Amino acid sequence: MTRASMGARCLLRGTLGRFRRGPRGLRATFGRFPRSHDAGTLRAMSNRLIVSLCFLALAACGKGPNTGTGGGTGGGGGLPPVSGATYYKDVLPITQVSCNGCHTEGGIAPFALDTYEAAKTHAALMSDAVKNKRMPPWHAAKDCGGQFVGDRTLTDQQIATLEGWFLDGAQEGNPADAPAPVDATSEQLAKVDFEGKMSVTYTPTMKDDYRCFIVDPALTQTKTVTGYDIAPGSKKVVHHVILYRVPRVAAVAKDGEDAKAGWECFGGADINDAAALGAWAPGGAAVTYPARTGIRLSSDQVLAMQVHYNTDNGSDTDQTSVKLMYGTGTEQEAYLLPVVAASFAIPPNAQDYKHTQSFDNPTKGNLNVPIKLWGFLPHMHTRGKAISIKSADTCLVDVPNWDFHWQTQYFRRAPFIMGADAKVSMNCSWDNPSNSTIRWGEGTSDEMCFAFIYATL
């Protein structure tokens, strides 16, 4: 079979990351994405995990369009506002759990809500945002996937409490009524073991400029990455960032190959044996992986930081940075497995056009064992309407009202066990208001039906 026909077969059948054994032991592998489906540039499958994922966010806080909280119907059309609510007795128990992971001093939100003074200042904004389901951001359906870690959903009663507190003048109440403190930094790293940045500054030279840069943790032994935090140097031009772990020798050979900083890297890191480690997009916060799991980073690997620059708002100079948190080394090794359903063609002016593809257990034909599915990061572009992942009759994640600006990674409190002979199916739907057929592609005018699955054996 030729490389081109292998690539076409991969695309038409859909693909899910694979496990195989190699010189370093068990590895997750995956064929390379097609850069543009309708241009016919189908890439061959190869033993590498190279992921093209545009404009994702692993957490969702800060500023964005209407979202909906996923639970209840509170506020307009829900329960009437609660009378007599005070900050310490009624409001703080809500905000410290569902708001302060982002809205805290040093957090990624534009203002804090972690003191009475701060909450009172923004009481009107807070009431309006929760009543109209713009905050807190959470899109996963409540009747699918069991319990997800960090669910920010507010109940009708909580929404009515916040609305009533504002209408009653945002009363402080008695500090003695305050609940016991909880961790308000759930979307920040518990510790930082490595902090690095692009070794040079870079100014993008075209509208959509994809560049990869080396960030070297300089490890002397293998570490397990249990969390990371990516900080763009210039949010004016940084559209998204994907971290790959790649062989140091190969990355050094690629660096500066076109006489500019880093190297061009559409569609992935453009290096054999590249494997995804994490990502950032607007609204993204730090990510902590499920307890006692993590992704291995060896001493002969470096980070290849793929940055997608977009100059629609003008050019600027960037120097993006990243923080890593390491575990003890005893964690279960995890993998980010990409699920790609790329063989769709959305007709012109179509409404609620649906596409479904099924995928085998990624160990089938090799290890043939069950795997544990811990987390899901669904991804579509701006015409996406809904996306879900199921295994037989079990719903794993369902985002019924897709919002391109709020893309969240959902981690289960307990993993779903996917049997050795089981399948998962991914279901996507779109609206296409244009007069042209829309296919798979990297631009926002193209579309995707994609997800990362965070998995362990």
- The helix/strand order is HEEEHHHHEEEEHEEEEEEEEEEEEEE
Number of strands: 21
Class by alpha and beta content:
alpha+beta
Q: Which CATH architecture of the largest domain?
A: Sandwich
Major sheet size, sense and barrel closure: 10 strands, mixed
Query: In CATH, what is the class of the largest domain?
Result: Mainly Beta
The CATH homologous superfamily of the largest domain is termed Copper type II, ascorbate-dependent monooxygenase, N-terminal domain
- What's the gyration radius in Å? 22 Å
Please tell me what the overall shape is. globular
Low-confidence stretches: 1-14, 19-77
| Terminal Cα span | 31 Å
How many structural domains are formed by the residues?
A: 3
Description:
This protein has helices at about 5-15, 85-100, 115-120, 125-130, 155-165, 250-255; strands spanning about 15, 20, 25-30, 195, 210-215, 225-230, 240-245, 265, 275-280, 285-290, 295, 300-310, 320-325, 330-340, 355-360, 370-380, 385-390, 395-400, 410-420, 425-430, 450-455. It folds into three domains: about 55-60 and about 185-330, Copper type II, ascorbate-dependent monooxygenase, N-terminal domain (Jelly Rolls); about 85-175, no CATH class; about 335-455, Jelly Rolls (Sandwich), CATH 2.60.120. β17 and β18 (about 395-400) form a beta hairpin. With about 450 residues, it is an alpha+beta fold. Helix content is about 10%, strand content about 30%. Residues about 1-15 and about 20-75 have low confidence and may be disordered. InterPro entries: Cu2_ascorb_mOase-like_C, Cu2_ascorb_mOase_N, Cu2_ascorb_mOase_N_sf, Cu2_monoox_C, Cyt_c-like_dom, DBH-like, PHM/PNGase_F_dom_sf.
